[in-house]
Amino acid sequence: MLKNFKPIIVIAGDPKSIFLEIYFKSVNKIKSNKPLILVVNKKILLEQMSALKYKFKINELDSNNLNFKNLSKKEINIIHVPYDKKYISKYIYDSFEKALSIIKKNKGANLINGPINKKKILKQNFLGITEYLDFKTKRNGKTVMLIYNKKLSVSPLTTHLPLKNVYKHINKKKIINHVGQITKFYLKQFNFKPKIAITGLNPHCESNFNNSEEEKIIIPSIRYLSKKKFKVSGPYAADTIFLKEKIKKFDVIIGMYHDQVLAPIKSIFGFDAINITLGLPFIRISPDHGPNMEMFLKNKSNPNSLFKAIKFLNK
């Protein structure tokens, strides 16, 4: 292991996403004090660079023998990954495997990954990258998705589940872990305990059934966490918690499912947020946007989320 080698490993992700466009815009604008190493197919990189009219020199590295002396500040440092368009999922899988291998050998290295099409996700049936990384690092389901913005962050208790299955995955243990991981992150990164709001699952936190999820699971979890001195409150109705006068009171809002909190946060901040996976042995960040294939090669995409990701890891 190389001493003091703390690069940011960047996975380009889906070959037809906007990520390389925003990466070119980012390296043009941001001077990272940590070396950026892009894991990508060289041919894809050169083709998109040409189509988007960017001119960067390429510095191809050997992933098995990384060395500071081989890194360049003026060129794009890359680890080449073979690509066959008939096997896109293999390309994505191999990209992550290479990146994780580098991180394992170089303690202190962190990860940024470009978005991928969920239909092409890796080799196993993972719901998303969060779950894949949880599996690879043997976290046993303890990782947490946090969409971070300095003014307000959100976190879905469940990630890319069909709505009909969400209620099956809500439990006290999961809520307690979620609050614990988020609080630990804020204490480590910002030196304060965050004020956390938790939504209900049902409209208005009510149900026509005698035993709602709020009564059985969410309220008992909040009471337990409050006794343990976490700054947590709720449950709040999801249709009003994002009103301007309410969000000023909180640092984080935990929702029961993906769109319950991601739709409002994107409406409020646009792409001015980053997706951080908490609970891993390294920091993993993804820009808060999808592949956005409709904008592929149009050179009109907003790189703000990737700016934020690189700046965060340069602290």
Structure description:
The protein has an eight-stranded mixed beta sheet, sandwiched between helices. A four-stranded parallel beta sheet has the order 7-10-8-9, with helices on both faces. The protein folds into two domains: 1-143 and 279-315, 3-Layer(aba) Sandwich (Isopropylmalate Dehydrogenase); 145-273, Isopropylmalate Dehydrogenase. Helix 6 (172-190) runs parallel beside helix 7 (213-227). With 315 residues, the protein is of the alpha/beta class. It has helices at residues 19-29, 42-51, 88-105, 129-136, 163-166, 172-190, 213-227, 244-247, 258-269, 304-313, and strands spanning 8-11, 36-40, 58-60, 76-80, 110-113, 144-148, 153-156, 196-199, 232-236, 252-255, 274-278, 284-287.
Question: Which helices and strands, and how do they pair?
Answer:
Layout: E1 8-11, H1 19-29, E2 36-40, H2 42-51, E3 58-60, E4 76-80, H3 88-105, E5 110-113, H4 129-136, E6 144-148, E7 153-156, H5 163-166, H6 172-190, E8 196-199, H7 213-227, E9 232-236, H8 244-247, E10 252-255, H9 258-269, E11 274-278, E12 284-287, H10 304-313
Parallel strand pairs: 1-2, 1-5, 2-4, 3-4, 5-12, 7-10, 8-9, 8-10
Antiparallel strand pairs: 6-11, 11-12
Helix pairs in contact: 6-7
Features:
17% strand, alpha/beta, 315 residues, Isopropylmalate Dehydrogenase, 10 helices, 8-stranded mixed β-sheet, 2 domains
Brief summary of the model shown:
With 315 residues, the chain is an alpha/beta fold. It contains 10 helices and 12 strands. It has an 8-stranded mixed β-sheet, sandwiched between helices. A 4-stranded parallel β-sheet has the order 7-10-8-9, with helices on both faces.
